[in-house]
Amino acid sequence: MGNLQWINLLVTKPGQLFKELDVAPRFWFALLLSMALSLGVMFWYYSGLDIAWFVDYTFSANAKTAQIPEEQRAKALAFMTRNFLLFTSLFAAIVAITAQRLLEALYLLVAGKVTGVKRSYRHWLALACWSSLPVAFAALTGAVMLLLQDSRQMAPDVLSPLSLNSLFFNLQLGQPGYSLVTSLSLLHLPSWALAIIGVRTWSGRSTLFSAVLVLLPLVLVYGIWAWLAWGTP
Asked: Can you tell me whether residue 205 is helix, strand or coil?
C-alpha cells in the first residue's frame, strides 16, 4: 500500500490506517510531508515580505525594543537581512517539527509501558507523525492567505488564519498570550482525535482511556503556558 493510499485511509478509515501502522510502522513520509508543507509556505512568506517593515513591526511590538533609538534599529535592519530571517526560520522550523514528534513519541512510549500498551518507539513515532498531518495541512490555508495579499507588509498571523488568535482573540504581537493562542489551530482537533483513535486501536481500551493518555500532557503544557501568560503579574 502506497503513501497516498495511507493518506486516504487517514481521512476515511483512520482505524484501518493505524492497524496498517501496527504491522509496518513507517513515519518518514508523514514527517517529511509536514516539513515540506511548513517550509514551503514559510519560504514563500519571507521571499515576498517587506523586511524593513517587518523589523520595525517586531521591534515596536515589544515595550523594551520599542524604545531603541533609530540608529540601533538601522544596525539591526542591516543584520536582519531577508536571507538571515529566511534561513534561521527554516532551520528553526525543522528543529521544532522534528523535536516535537520525537518528544511526543517518547511520551507515548513511556505512557504506553506504564499503562500496558506496549509498542516500540518506532510505532509511537509513526503514530505521532501521521496523526499530526492535519496540523501540517494548516500551511495550505496560509498559502491561500498569501495568494490574497496585495501588500508586502504581512504580519506573521497571515500564515495561521485558523488559529484561535485569528478566529477569536485577535491579540497583537507582544500582548500576553499571543504566542499561546496563535500556536493553537482548529486543525489541532482532528489531529488529537486521530491520536486518540490510534491509541484506542492499538490498546483495545476505551475512548476515555485513550483520550486521557493522549491529552494529559497537552492539558499540562498548555495549562502552564496559559498560567504564565495570564496568571502571573
From this structure: coil
Which of helix, strand or coil describes residue 41? helix
Q: What's the DSSP call for residue 67?
A: G
What is the DSSP code string of 123-192? HHHHHHHHHTHHHHTHHHHHHHHHHH---S---GGGG-TTBHIIIII-PPTTSTTHHHHHH-BTTHHHHH
Nearest to 192 by CA among 225, 218, 226: 218
pTM of the model: 0.92
Q: Report d(CA 47, CA 43) in Å as an integer.
A: 6
**Three-state SS at 116:** coil
Please tell me the predicted confidence (pLDDT) of residue 149.
Answer: 92
Question: What would the grid cell of residue 173 be?
Answer: 504581537
C-alpha cell at 227: 498560567
pLDDT one-digit tens code per residue, 130-183: 999 999 888 899 999 999 998 999 999 899 999 999 999 999 888 889 999 999
Which amino acid belongs to residue 145? Answer: M
Cell 538601522 belongs to 74
Q: What pLDDT, in 10s, does the model give residues 51-70?
A: 989 988 887 777 666 667 77
Distance of CA 108 to the CA centre of its chain: 18
CB atoms within 10 A of CB 112: 21
The end-to-end CA distance of the chain, in Å, is 55
